[in-house]
Design brief:
The complex is a heterotrimer of chains A (393), B (76) and C (185).
Chain A lengths: L33 E12 L6 E2 L6 E13 L4 E14 L2 E6 L5 E5 L4 E14 L6 E10 L3 E15 L2 E14 L4 H4 L5 E17 L2 E14 L7 E4 L2 E4 L5 E15 L4 E12 L4 E14 L2 E12 L27 E14 L2 E13 L17 E12 L1
Parallel strand pairs in A: 2-6
Antiparallel strand pairs in A: 1-3, 1-21, 3-4, 4-7, 5-6, 7-8, 8-9, 9-10, 10-11, 11-12, 12-15, 13-14, 15-16, 16-17, 17-18, 18-19, 19-20, 20-21
Chain B lengths: L4 H19 L22 H14 L17
Chain C lengths: L16 H13 L18 E2 L8 E2 L7 E7 L4 H16 L5 E7 L4 H10 L6 E3 L4 H6 L6 E5 L5 E6 L5 H13 L7
Parallel strand pairs in C: 3-4, 4-5
Antiparallel strand pairs in C: 1-2, 3-6, 6-7
Classes of the chains: A mainly beta (393), B mainly alpha (76), C alpha/beta (185).
Chain lengths: 393, 76, 185
């Protein structure tokens, strides 16, 4: 993972502005001027099973996130700072070759990758205490081989007492400088630009439920290949090659229903995405927020994801047929994934503590319709995190 | 199923839900005690969500949610 | 091993671009009309409501001659909770003979309001309107909403949402309105 990216993920938080009502916080800290959240998380990939060449131990990431949310100018502006520090290590899929029987064999990078990522995101929200507000976000993320700079703007606006419109756009400029570029014949420096526009509408359906529907279009241009991945193309072992343009369109529907009598809420999300590389995906997520009294809360969650392969995905090409684009990156193959998670939270006055874990399993058979050809190196991972939130004046 | 059929289904769904929303009796601002609950936010724990989405983004061909574009990474 | 060379290929076709645009248009079309709200310069609708903690009912018309700040709030509303202690500070520093605050509580369950007020006590009167009749008459479209009503019962300021800086604006407005003459009606 976790080479994070996503500077733009910071914009996610602005979606919280699409509130159907003046919402409260989990801890009893509405009167506090400043709120802080700290998260420590560990991400661990399982060792690869099956036919593998190289060190089968895969990625491990330790992350720390600190988020501070405060008010400026007498509450006319909200300021949010998010800092992330991560340490990554492990080996990763390099290329796929065929064994004597023509079955795919995953080859992993020999050397252990060690990298760090530091990221900072700053958001300013105008009129944060009202339902009509605008958020401006700037973020920067740096690794030894990767830099991303992003700017975004998002506006939330009630259209009526029961309807809220949200829309915005963002732009990201990323620079890639692969390690050991000369030794391995990798591209020495490359850039890509991504622009996104999105729009959503949220409806208050009744006293207990809200629905949101949104669309998003992402356009990327530049070096979109993975500089570390190689491809077996007939007798050659060559750098993988993807188109230098990518268009993705996605639709999202989110539903929230409160069961106040039993102190619970249901969350249901569905997302559909389709891109110009021929990849389509479905994501379904469900979680249940159950209050247990005395500030305790339990949140179990389920997620299913399915994607169809990009047109130019193949584990390898034994007899090349003049393809312009080719990649054996398992992330472009047909597969499905299922994950389960659990989160326990406890609020004490202005403090809230949380602990959580997630188990993610991916397989060809979990894809919609049962999956296509072999996709080696599909990942299984476990994530665990601990967090602390508090409000102060 | 042809790939371009699915967005049309999604479009029909969106239109249907929009119409359904118009048909219901409006909920007054002072009747939103349940909707104001912390667990009724679109994203109750945005810090945790950012990390979670990051894991998916790095391991899947397409992911993210409305509002977050994939400002890519060379993620392994 | 071969170096990557930049692709000169044209972007691939993208069939669903039109569909995505249609979805966007469809989404934005379903906006519903806005509610009718009591505006600035209009007469504030009168009301009579039971009061928390005493038997005596409260009515707006009985306060004619004073500048009145009417705040619609509920204990489940985050910004309302944030605002209450600030309004209390304002109330504590203003002259009682020319100004008062009247908070209209909209909790459906009275004990929810009482629980909040026990933790954050205020000195100004709290009127109870669990049925929401008064905010309906005022056309309140969001929580919290507040009105500043002059000595003659006319709405002179309206605020939706809350930010601490509103208190200074209010203090200034109240001072100004308190100096205006009250007409005998």
């Amino acid at each position: 993972m976790p080479r994070p990216s996503t500077s733009l993920a910071a914009l996610l938080t602005a979606a919280a502005a699409l509130l159907p009502a003046a919402q409260t916080r989990a801890a009893d800290s509405d009167e506090a001027d400043t709120h802080a959240s700290y998260r420590f998380s560990e991400y661990d990939e399982d060792a690869l099973h099956g036919v593998v060449v190289g060190d089968p131990r895969r990625y491990r990431v330790l992350s720390q996130q600190l988020d501070i949310d405060t008010k400026l100018d007498g509450g006319a502006w909200g300021l949010k700072l998010d800092a992330t520090h991560e340490v990554m290590s492990g080996s990763s899929p390099w290329y796929v070759t065929a064994d004597a029987n023509g079955r795919p064999v995953q080859v992993l990078s020999g050397a252990t990758i060690r990298d760090r990522r530091n990221a900072l995101s700053v958001s300013l929200t105008q009129n944060p205490g009202t339902s009509a507000n605008t958020t401006y976000t700037a973020s920067y993320s740096k690794e030894n081989d990767y830099r991303a700079t992003a700017l975004g703007i998002e506006r939330s606006q009630p259209l009526s007492a029961a309807t809220t419109l949200g829309y915005g756009g963002s732009f990201s400029h990323d620079v890639i400088k692969p390690f050991q570029a000369q030794d391995y014949g990798r591209i020495e420096r490359a850039t890509k630009n991504t622009a996104s526009v999105f729009s959503s509408l949220a409806w208050v359906l009744d006293r207990d439920s809200v629905l949101q529907a949104g669309v998003q279009i992402n356009l990327s241009h530049g070096y979109l290949s993975d500089p570390y991945k190689l491809f077996v193309y007939g007798k050659f072992l060559t750098a993988e090659r993807r188109p230098d343009q990518h268009v993705e369109a996605a639709g999202l529907v989110r539903y929230r229903r409160a069961y106040a009598q039993i102190d619970a809420a249901l969350h249901l999300d569905y997302r559909y995405a389709q891109d110009s590389w021929g990849l389509t995906s479905h994501t379904v997520e469900a979680s249940w927020y159950q209050g247990l009294g005395h500030g305790w809360r339990l949140v179990p969650g389920l997620r299913w994801y399915s994607q169809s392969a990009a047109r130019f995905y193949a584990p390898f090409l034994a007899a090349p047929g003049g393809q312009r684009f080719y990649s054996s990156d398992y992330r472009l193959g047909t597969f499905g994934a299922f994950s389960t998670s659990i989160n326990v939270r406890k609020a004490i006055g202005r403090w809230e503590f949380s602990l959580g874990a997630e188990r993610y399993h991916s397989a060809r058979g979990l894809a919609l319709g049962g999956g296509g050809g072999t996709v080696p190196a599909l990942v299984d991972f476990t994530r665990a995190w601990a967090g602390l939130d508090f409000g102060f004046d | 199923m042809r790939p371009d059929v699915l967005p049309r289904i999604a479009l029909a769904l969106v239109c249907a839900t929009a119409l359904a929303a118009c048909a219901t009796k409006p909920v007054q601002p002072w009747e939103r005690a349940h909707l104001a609950r912390w667990d009724m936010r679109w994203d109750p724990d945005s810090v945790q969500t950012a990390m979670k989405q990051h894991a998916y983004f790095s391991k899947e061909g397409s992911s993210g949610t409305i509002g977050a574009a994939g400002g890519g990474c060379g993620c392994n | 091993m071969r170096m990557h060379s930049p692709s000169t290929a044209r972007p691939e076709s993208f069939r669903s671009r039109g569909t995505a645009f249609a979805m966007l248009v469809a989404l934005t079309m379903f906006a519903i009309g806005t509610a009718r709200a009591t505006g600035i310069g209009e007469r504030a609708p009168d009301f009579h409501l039971p009061q928390l903690g005493t038997e005596a009912p409260l009515s707006l018309s009985a306060l004619r001659g004073k500048v009145v700040f009417v705040d619609f709030w509920a204990s489940w509303c985050g910004p309302c909770r944030e605002a209450m202690p600030q309004y209390e500070k304002l109330y504590a520093t203003m002259a009682r003979d020319t100004f008062t605050i009247l908070a209209v509580n909209l909790d459906e369950t009275r004990s929810d309001a009482e629980k909040f007020l026990a933790a954050h006590p205020v000195g100004y009167p709290i009127a109870l309107d669990p049925a929401g009749e008064v905010p309906k008459a005022y056309g309140v479209v969001g929580m919290p909403t507040s009105y500043l009503i002059d000595r003659n019962g006319i709405v002179r300021w309206r605020g939706q949402g809350f930010k601490p800086a509103d208190i200074d604006v209010l203090r200034h407005e109240v001072d100004r309105l308190a100096r205006e003459p009250a007409h005998a009606s």
